[in-house]
Amino acid sequence: MPLLVSDYSWTQTESTVYINVPLKGAKAASVDILSTDEYIKVHFPPYLFEAFLFEPVDDDKGSARVGNGVAIISLTKRSNGVWEHLMIQTNDKERKKKIRQAALVKHQKKLSSESEQKAERQRAERKYALETMMKLEKEEKESIQRMKDVERQKTSTELAEWQLRQRQETREELRDDPKPQRTGTTPSDGGRPKAGQRCDRKTEKKPAELPPPRLRGDIQVSFTPRVFPTALRESRVPEEEEWLRKQAAARRAMSADAEELRDLKEDERNPDWLKDRADKCFMAGDYHGAINAYSLAIRLNRRIPALYSNRAACHLKLHNLHKAIEDASQALELLTPAVTANAAARVRASIRRGSAFCQLQLYAEGLQDYQAALKINPHNEALQADAQRIRDIIQGSAASRDTQ
Question: Could you please report the per-residue DSSP string of 85-145?
Answer without folding.
Answer: -SB-----HHHHHHHHHHHHHHHHHHHHHHHHHHHHHHHHHHHHHHHHHHHHHHHHHHHHH
